[in-house]
Design brief:
The chain is mainly alpha-helical. It has 6 helices and 2 strands, in the order ααααββαα.
């Protein structure tokens, strides 16, 4: 995947309530999990992501630091950031996945209710998305 194609896979939703750096982390992990990025593949530079997403360079740098701490990427000053060998992803069992989804849905439902959105409206939205 060339740099332009890879850059187009990134986006930030400023109204989502999820910090931009976490959105970048989630997107890199999703690209690795879907095999769109593999061991040794180079990530876009902090500068190119900053310009593409309209973010402060410190925001992108924070995402890269956290990805490196999680073992997802390895970075070398002046050489770039690459998907690490044996990227450390938390592998969840079926029960753990359901528990995490239940907790996530409860948070989403509470937020929606606070905005006057019913559970049925939320389900319709999720089904149509």
């Amino acid at each position: 995947m060339n740099d332009t194609d890879l850059l187009s896979r990134f986006s930030v939703e400023f109204d989502s309530g999820i910090p931009a750096y976490k959105q970048i982390i989630n997107q890199v992990c999703a690209l690795v999990n879907s095999n769109a990025l593999n061991e040794g593949d180079q990530l876009p530079t902090i500068r190119s992501l900053t310009e593409t997403l309209g973010l402060n360079p410190n925001t992108v740098a924070k995402a890269f630091r956290e990805l490196e701490l999680k073992g997802v990427i390895s970075s070398r000053r002046g050489c770039g950031s690459y998907i690490a060998a044996n990227s450390n992803f938390e592998v969840l069992s079926g029960e753990e996945r359901i528990a995490r989804l239940d907790a996530l849905y409860a948070k989403m439902l509470a937020e929606a209710n606070g905005l006057g959105i019913s559970e049925n409206e939320l389900k319709d939205y999720l089904n149509n998305r």
